[in-house]
Request: fold
Amino acid sequence: MKLAWIIPAALLVLAAMVLAARWLRETPGVQDFLLTYPGHSELPGTAPVGIPAWVGWQHFLNSLLLLLIIRSGWLIRTRQRSVGSWTRNNRGLIRTRNQPKKISLDLWFHLSLDVLWVLNGLIFYILLFATGQWMRLVPTSWDVFPNAASTALQYASLDWPMENGWVNYNSLQVLSYFSIVFIAAPLAILTGLRMSPSWPAKAKRLNRVFPIEAARALHFPVMLYFVLFIIVHVTLVLTTGALRNLNHMYAASDGTGWTGFWFFAASVVVMAAAWVAARPLFLRPVAALTGKVSR
Reply:
């Protein structure tokens, strides 16, 4: 019953926002503002042009891992009946003096994905700064903020801003990408590490500075921020020139052909297959390679 009221109310709010934005754009002051701040900041002269292929591969791997991390994290939070547990083999490269802790199969999968996501992120950071691509994601001028406000107003009025992501992201994209890459991702890793079994329980001073309650209070909202970002990101990719955007992201091309779309379609198939395979039936034999699995 609540959903029947929430959807119409949300549509009314969106309609009111669009009407308000379109009205604002007709006022002289706002028109002057849009002329002064068209929606993007100038990049440094040494900034690279174009999106290399490694960004596309990183984007796909990050999307796949993040999808499964969110899924497994949600199951950890909501699943009431255990589907199994895992205890690490205390031999090989990773040995500890104390007996390894038994954790749920869901938590094992979540932590395993986290390790892969962090490794992928480290590669991304290295390539980002080695190739100069960081200049496309990191604000280099204070006018990024009024330009971001300008972009938001243009989006809200349904009169899309003139942009060319191949050369320069608009300021709202820059701020959102920066927040994901350099704020939300490190925060997710830090809070997740604080809640993991590998965190040193006897480090009293460290635990006093960063209590586990603070990590728990932050970790879930950060996940919701990722979900919100994904929804908005995918929506805008598909509604602001889908073929060109998909070529940027998946084909390292500025064209409007179908190559990027087919790579995107294949990635969706892979992610759907991974979603189906992420079940106890398939996870148990994989987890058994590195530990003892029990029901």
Summary: The first strand starts at residue 85 and ends at 88. The mean pLDDT is 90.
